[in-house]
Amino acid sequence: MMSNIIDGKQVSLEIRDSLTEEVKKLQKQDIQPGLAVVIVGSDPASQTYVRAKAKACNNIGIYSEVYELPEEITEQQLLEKIDELNSDMRIHGILVQLPLPKDINEQAVIERISADKDVDGFHILNAGKLLVGQDSYLPCTPAGCIELIKRTGETLEGKHVVVIGRSNIVGKPVALLSLYENATVTICHSRTQNLAEIVKQGDIVIAAVGRPKMITADMVKDGAIVIDVGINRVDGKLVGDVDFEQVKDKASFITPVPGGVGPMTITMLLQNTIVACKKSV
Ligand SMILES: Nc1nc(=O)c2c([nH]1)NC[C@@H]1CN(c3ccc(C(=O)N[C@@H](CCC(=O)O)C(=O)O)cc3)C=[N+]21
Fold this sequence. Notes:
The protein has helices at about 10-30, 45-60, 75-85, 105-110, 125-130, 140-150, 170-180, 195-200, 245, 260-280, and strands at about 35-40, 65-70, 95, 160-165, 185-190, 205, 225-230, 230-235, 235-240, 255. With about 280 residues, the chain is α/β, with parallel strands linked by helices. The chain folds into 2 domains: about 30-130, Leucine Dehydrogenase, chain A, domain 1 (Rossmann fold, 3-Layer(aba) Sandwich); about 140-265, Rossmann fold (3-Layer(aba) Sandwich), CATH 3.40.50.720. Catalyzes the oxidation of 5,10-methylenetetrahydrofolate to 5,10-methenyltetrahydrofolate and then the hydrolysis of 5,10-methenyltetrahydrofolate to 10-formyltetrahydrofolate. Its EC number is 1.5.1.5, 3.5.4.9.
């Protein structure tokens, strides 16, 4: 039997191959896409992600700069760094790694990034464009989820997509993207009553809550597609929001953690950076 496990790493490699070709074409025209990644403080997990992003850039030929700023930096200093990157012609995409230290206003920092360089798709202008259906930078994790669903060969059209989680960076945008694919969408959250019953109606379940293994087999419809956005560290191991071992025998397709949505998030970031570069010329 063919595996029902969606290999996010493999899908990512396939997409990155074609992105590499695109970068080569641009380089032949003397155009070099560039990404700046800014990280504040020295949280080890954040540092790992930032390094993974820089490495992915280098692998496909995108120029990258990483700015590791001290925990004690003021909001003003961070805003000045962003101003500098906004006017840097070599830089087409700017990513400020979240979360930021408590004393820094995250939204103010995101809003300072030029919307044209907002390859995370977190700027209010891009969020607003997404809401009304205008062309915008799509947030990377939601875009990666939709891409993974499409690559199963299944369509979202007419399907009931149940999203668990309502964050601005995953839950809300992935619900909107599903809607634009003509899915029927339900958003569940911490106050949802009868969560298990609602999730069980999902032809497609997208879990983005941040609670290890909270989606169990009894909550999932036979043959559902299950996309696990969770990245929870439990005893030093990465665990999703879905109880993978239980649910994999019920799902028609399921993403593992690690090796599912995570690599796709980075791939979509690379794609957005190339788009940003092309728009700038
Ligand atoms: N401005 C901003 N943009 C982000 O996109 C952003 C952010 N801040 N803050 C943190 C989260 C987290 N995130 C991940 C990206 C890739 C993996 C990934 O590739 N994970 C691997 C495993 C990596 C490991 O082993 O730790 C996988 O799932 O297979 C995970 C998490 C992006 N984030």
